[in-house]
Design goal:
With about 325 residues, this protein is mostly helical. Helices cover about 75% and strands about 5% of the residues.
Length: about 325
């Protein structure tokens, strides 16, 4: 880390300073976090135990669910603890590590969304070449490269945010150590650091969103040429739900990281809640429960569990 930091700890001001709102918010965000864990762990387990879901799309989706679990866990437990605690201090190292891990998993999510969009593009627009283009080897290479590039990006982001001198206030007006509120506390010049962050965010966020946009434009053009009205409706239904998730995630990302520092205000916390808390909760419902293949796999697993339970009950009755 370049520069010198004199602060050994920060104070997270949290979502609200109203004591009357903290308990209801704790209950709400705890329920959301539980749903996030159950939904995303459920996806991972279901794909593992269902041979019908061993396809590239669900391979990407399991990594997507894992990423949602990780970056939600980086934020939510600390936020929940602060809602009930008077001591909201966080050490410099803990704050830096929270930002590093959050940046790492969010960057991976950007790349995975682009991969999933490209996967759907090939499946709909080039179905005969799908197995060749999206092979198992290509899937692993894409995912491994996203993890590697995300790690390098997160290191650069963290170096830029925490590498300056923190010699003034130590109160972070946010519920986690995010780039915008932390940089406000830096005493040294941050122009070059912010430009470097802006460049990498542009590569990761704008670059992947362009891939997603072009993929879905190509999908829509192909769908409109389909003869079957049922096929068109099914494809549009899938695209609409996926685009809704992408819009929430990238929309709040653009709002937080690609606008000038002087433009940030009270809506920052609301936007942050959407991409750190709400989006990981919605993704399992958007990408799986609206999907016939997943519903079929759930029914099969349910029948197997029921038959296993019945068999175990009969055995216990006989003995």
């Amino acid at each position: 880390m370049r520069g010198n930091h004199t602060q050994t700890k920060f104070i997270l001001l949290g979502i609200t300073d109203s004591p009357y709102a903290q308990t209801p918010l704790f209950v709400l965000f705890l329920l959301i976090y539980i749903v996030t864990l159950v939904g995303n762990f459920g996806i991972i387990i279901l794909v593992r135990v269902s041979p019908s879901l061993h396809t590239p799309m669900y391979f990407f989706l399991t990594h997507f669910a894992f990423t949602d679990i990780c970056y939600s866990t980086v934020i939510s437990p600390r936020m929940l603890a602060d809602l009930l605690s008077e001591d909201k201090t966080i050490s410099f190292t803990a704050c830096m590590m929270q930002f590093l891990t959050f940046a790492f998993f969010v960057t991976i999510e950007c790349h995975l969304l682009a991969m999933m969009a490209y996967d759907r593009h090939v499946a709909i627009c080039q179905p005969l070449l799908y197995v060749t283009i999206i092979s198992s080897r290509v899937c692993w290479q894409l995912v491994a490269s996203s993890y590697l590039f995300a790690f390098l990006s997160a290191i650069i982001y963290t170096w830029c945010v925490f590498g300056g001198s923190f010699c003034g206030p130590n109160r972070i007006d946010h519920f986690f150590c995010d780039k915008v509120p932390v940089v406000k506390l830096v005493c040294s010049d941050t122009h070059s650091s912010e430009m470097l962050i802006f460049a990498f965010v542009t590569i990761n966020v704008v670059g992947t969103s362009v891939v997603i946009l072009l993929s879905y434009i190509s999908i829509i053009r192909t769908v409109l040429r389909m003869c079957s009205a049922q096929s068109r409706a099914r494809a549009f239904h899938t695209c609409a739900s996926h685009l809704m998730a992408v819009s929430i995630f990238f929309g709040t990302g653009f709002f937080m990281y690609l606008q000038p520092s002087s433009s940030h205000g009270s809506l920052d916390k609301v936007a942050s809640v959407f991409y750190t808390v709400v989006t990981p909760t919605l993704n399992p419902f958007i990408y799986t429960l609206r999907n016939k293949e997943v519903k079929g796999a759930l029914l099969k697993c349910g029948r197997k569990l029921f038959n296993h339970w019945q068999h175990a009950r009969l055995v216990s009755c006989r003995t």
